[in-house]
Design brief:
The structure is a single chain. The protein is an all-alpha fold. The chain contains nine helices and no strands. Helix 1 packs across helix 3 and helix 5 packs antiparallel against helix 7. The protein is elongated, with a radius of gyration of 19 Å.
Length: 152
């Protein structure tokens, strides 16, 4: 893709035009998911959709596409979210689930939103994945303060 002017991605008409070009260029019926856009080299479009244009669900509606999203409530399902996170880790060969910003960069904004909104936040979700936290948890720090222990 060519260089774009500063803030050009904030322009909804421009973003819609670029999305239609991607759909046409690759012969897609619908706008692909974020991770596919990133894989194809359209991370700026993916980022703009999430940051400036209300996310993929809203953006697809603006494109006239309404039937390609996951069934409502899918991300509320803990097992689905855990399986998806494991697949992200496997795909990118991560030992641990990356932080929110990295997930967004890779096009997995739905996972990061689900973790924050439905599954207790990143520290708790990582525990559910079986990942050890090397830092003291907020709870253990609070317990030390309440017991009068000095923090190191």
């Amino acid at each position: 893709m060519r260089k774009t002017k500063y803030n050009q991605w904030k322009d909804l008409d421009y973003a819609l035009q670029q999305a239609r070009k991607v759909i046409k260029r690759y012969g897609f019926e619908n706008l692909p998911y974020s991770d596919k856009l990133v894989e194809l080299g359209y991370s700026s479009l993916s980022h703009a959709i999430g940051r400036y244009h209300g996310g993929f669900l809203n953006f697809r509606r603006l494109l006239g596409q309404t039937d390609i999203n996951k069934k409502s409530g899918t991300w509320k399902d803990l097992e689905y979210a855990l399986d998806y996170a494991r697949e992200v880790k496997r795909k990118y060969r991560f030992e641990k689930l990356p932080h929110l910003k990295k997930l967004l960069e890779l096009g997995h904004s739905s996972l990061s939103l689900a973790i924050s909104k439905y599954h207790g936040g990143f520290p708790h979700f990582r525990e559910l994945l079986g990942e050890k936290n090397n830092q003291n948890s907020t709870i253990s720090l609070l317990e030390k303060v309440l017991q009068g222990d000095k923090l190191a």
